[in-house]
Amino acid sequence: MASTLSLRSAGLRLRSLRQLQPRTDLRSAVASMVEKKEFSSQPEQSAIDGRGYLMGSERSTIRAAVLWEPKKPMVIEDLKMPRPKTGEVLIKTKACGVCHSDLHVMKGDQPYPSPVVLGHEVTGEVVEHGPHTDAATQKRIPVGARVVGAFIMPCGGCFFCVKGEEDLCETFFKYNRGMGGLYDGTTRLYHASTGRPIFMYSMGGLAEYCVIPAHAVAPLAPSLPYVESAIIGCAVFTAYGAMKNAADMRAGETVAIIGTGGVGSSCVQVARAFGGRQIIAVDVNEKQLANAKKMGATHTVNASSENVVDRIKEITNGRGVDIAVEALGKAPTFVQATQAVREGGKAVMVGLAPAGVAAQVDISKLVRRKVQIIGSYGGRARQDLPTVITLAEMGFLKIESAVTQRCSLEEADAAYGAMDRGEITGRAVVDIDPSLGNA
């Protein structure tokens, strides 16, 4: 498993890590490895027929968890087998993470078209490429390949994608988050008996098969398990994007993470991997704080019994942290993050809030003390996803420890309810493929 991999077996010498300079840190070392690395994800040739389909994949219907309207339970329905279009791949879904972003849609806090299949962090096996797929894509993620799908699915051609800022992809936000479909303006999901269109939240991962734009898919290392690796596509991907792209974190910096659920605990792990000197986890739940310690936090603060800002200042000798990450999407913790950073520090906001929620901050302090407030929504799939997978493969990210609960597709709605009640420590994952068992 990834957690037992040695640095030497991962191809990185311990001596070279010690020699990393502040601006030539683990991120650049791993990035160079990703460019040279080739995953052995090619399937046996006998498993593929002459048309490029995986043998045994041609079914007419699939099962999916459908949210017919907000504030109602999801229902398992039969849908027509989706088919990929140009620039897309069809995967047989193995696992899908349970995330608060889905919960915002389920509760009606974030307007979204319905009926919809939720689920936006997945692992699976490539079954089919869309028509006119280029040779490079077929080589990178061939039919039969083990893959991870990221929740931000870049088009690769819009203003921001061309600039390398795929986390701002205009096409994704217009057609998926705005219309519930893919980039021709339509969904790939239809009810099996009525033909009614079913919208997609990202790829609609709470289904036995799903269609994903190829730019959002990366090969999954053979040593990483399908189930636990599902969280790479959102929780870990979001944490990595926050620390690398938004905070531009450097080795030796101090970090506070406010809210240590799935994304927050992943931020703890990424901060540790980047060489954080002090990593302060803040939560009201002692179980979450204990879990954050296991993930690499050097200090914990229980917000229900301690003054968060005062305690962070005490830990940092009155200065405040270099970086504060808010992972809850609540107005009070938003303000706390801006108050917990040092002069010239960065407050990175990753927690989503219900539509219309606002927070007030001290403008004079921001201006005079150069405090930066930075929004961060995920990572950049083509740039970041392969690096995150490599970090997990090398054991720098403990994805197996981060996943604390598994459930079946039929139990998915109950899992979201448990998450809403604060009963899940770490991350829950839905086993879409029952054949995985304990794999």
UniProtKB/TrEMBL annotation:
Its cofactor is Zn(2+). Pfam families: ADH_N, ADH_zinc_N. PANTHER family: GROES-LIKE ZINC-BINDING ALCOHOL DEHYDROGENASE FAMILY PROTEIN (PTHR43350:SF2), NAD-DEPENDENT ALCOHOL DEHYDROGENASE (PTHR43350). The keyword Oxidoreductase applies. This is Enoyl reductase (ER) domain-containing protein. Keywords: Metal-binding, Oxidoreductase, Zinc. It comes from the Eukaryota. Belongs to the zinc-containing alcohol dehydrogenase family. InterPro entries: ADH-like_C, ADH-like_N, ER, GroES-like_sf, NAD(P)-bd_dom_sf. GO terms for molecular function: metal ion binding; oxidoreductase activity. Residues 74-430 form the Enoyl reductase (ER) domain.
